[in-house]
Amino acid sequence: MRCFLAIELKTDLKENLEVLKKQFNLKGIKTVEKENLHITVKFLGDIDDKKLEDIVNSDLKIKKVISEIKGVGTFPNEEYIRVIWVGTTNLQETFKNIDEKLLKLGFKKEKSYDPHITLGRVKFIENDSKETLKRLIEKNKHINFGKIEINSVSLMKSTLTKKGPVYETVKRWE
To answer: Where is this motif: HXTX 1 (predicted)?
Structure first.
């Protein structure tokens, strides 16, 4: 089963992100469906039933965190754009703590923690669209959606389909 840990977002924030996301509807960019918007904590990959059981039985509760949702950025950089994201604050320690718990279950430790919400993935970009994309990123670099309270983490199942991934919550630690 293909799984990841995520922080699920409330509907009002998803609606606000949807307005921003529409600006990035350029040829070659696959935006994330509104229902799939989330903060990825850790991608776990394909896991077997035993590993799934180990995760479900783990204590992945987190301390309440206030995070600011702000700024548009890119991975790996602004010259070679593969992912367009909105940033989140105050989550590095939370991610690190979860990573430590998962290390004990045999998962690799992350090299760094870059909490974000993926808006879209760039499959390809034509030269004329690249400048448009750079302008949109620059224009939205300081956008601010305000603060949200985060107090739960969810284990998500990801099923890949022709229309895109379908996510299902397996367990939520609150």
So the answer is: 38-41
For residue 142, indicate whether it is catalytic: no
pTM of the model: 0.93
Q: At a CB cut-off of 8 Å and minimum separation 6, what does 66 contact?
A: 90, 147, 148, 149, 150
Q: Examine the residue annotation and report whether 116 is marked as an active-site residue of this protein.
A: yes
Structural domain count, the chain: 1
Give me the catalytic one of 38, 73, 98, 120. Answer: 38
pLDDT higher than threshold 80 for residue 18: yes
The catalytic residue among 24, 71, 116, 145 is 116
Q: Is the pLDDT of residue 153 over 80?
A: yes
CATH code for the domain of 58: 3.90.1140.10
Distance in angstroms (rounded) separating the CA atoms of residues 129 and 79: 13
Q: What is the pLDDT of residue 128?
A: 77
